[in-house]
Design brief:
The chain has helices at residues 3-22, 34-45, 60-69, 78-84, 94-102, 135-142, 157-161, 179-191, 205-220; strands at residues 27-30, 50-53, 74-76, 87-90, 111-114, 119-122, 125-128, 147-150, 171-176, 195-200. It is of the alpha/beta class and 232 residues long. It has a single domain (24-220), classed as 3-Layer(aba) Sandwich (Rossmann fold), CATH 3.40.50.720. It has an eight-stranded mixed sheet, with helices on both faces. Strands 6-7 form a two-stranded antiparallel sheet. Helix 2 links the parallel strand 1 and strand 2 (50-53). Bound molecules: NADP nicotinamide-adenine-dinucleotide phosphate. NADP nicotinamide-adenine-dinucleotide phosphate binds at residues 31-36, 54-56, 62, 91-94, 96, 100, 115-117, 153, 156-157.
Length: 232
């Protein structure tokens, strides 16, 4: 390795290492959009420290989100945010997911909450984007050492922001292969007044990811619905 490259690598490692000690117990949110912003503000309100990971951390949009989230919130690059925290929410458009996720550095041992649904809207209709298994299992394949938990993909962002609009309790199905990771995520679900429901191993994300297609399909056909599951 050239000396200049070595210095750059050492500086990168040092800067992410500093962040790790600077924001103990933080939640990184990669993708500070509708879902990331709604959950970031709610978790901050419940006492959690939020570190947003944005491609444009200094943009006006992200600055406004940081200000609305609270004094402890920060924004940095996706890589720096993911390395700063032991737990992260990953919520980006699925088409951008592979490049974005693979740019987050080592996620070994980290809990990754996967809120993504592999779909898009093009030419006025919903499109199911190709995954042979599920988005959650793709993330697991891209980061084998990460502890992936599927969650928050079966309700729309405005219900996350204000669950009372649902008029009653709202379930959040959790799919994952690790009981400890699921129980940490269940606490974060309860922290925003939603009801965690363990629906099984990570492969059960295949079922919940398909639910959003119907919701989006109805929306683009001009029959918008609120989208959430309700426990009996
Ligand atoms: N909207 C909902 O109600 C809802 C509900 C459940 C699940 N989901 C799922 O959650 C994920 C995020 O949805 P969202 O509605 O929060 O999306 P969004 O509002 O479009 O925000 C996604 C964020 O991802 C980041 N990003 C990274 N790479 C990107 C790229 N190439 N193009 C565009 N944005 C990029 C952007 O942040 P920076 O520009 O700051 O980097 C953006 O703010 C999706 O997979 C979606 O299916 C959405």
């Amino acid at each position: 390795m050239k000396p200049s490259l070595l210095i750059l690598v050492l500086l990168a490692v040092a800067s992410t290492g500093n962040a790790a000690t600077e924001y103990p117990g933080c939640i990184a949110i990669v993708g500070p959009g509708a879902v990331g912003g709604a959950l970031g503000k709610r978790w901050a309100g419940a006492g959690h420290r939020i570190v947003y990971g944005s491609r444009t951390p200094d943009s006006e949009r992200v600055r406004e989100l940081v200000a609305a989230t609270g004094a402890d919130a920060r924004a940095m690059t996706p890589l720096a945010a993911a390395q700063a925290c032991d737990l992260l929410l990953f919520a980006v458009p699925w088409e951008a997911a592979e490049e974005s996720f693979k740019g987050l550095g080592s996620l070994a041992g980290k809990i990754v909450i996967d809120a993504n649904n592999p779909l898009d809207v093009r030419d006025g209709r919903e499109i199911a984007l190709p995954v042979i298994d599920s988005a959650a299992e793709r993330l697991q394949a891209w980061a084998p050492g990460a502890r992936i938990v599927k969650a928050f993909n079966t309700l729309n962002w405005n219900v996350m922001e204000n669950p009372s609009i649902a008029g009653g309790p709202v379930s959040v199905p959790l799919s994952g292969d690790e009981a400890d990771a699921k129980s940490r995520v269940a606490e974060l679900v309860r922290a925003v007044d939603l009801v965690p429901v363990d629906v099984g191993p990570l492969r059960t994300a295949r079922y919940t990811e398909q639910m959003a297609l119907l919701y989006v399909s109805l929306s683009v056909r001009g029959v918008p619905h609120e989208f959430h599951l309700r426990p009996r």
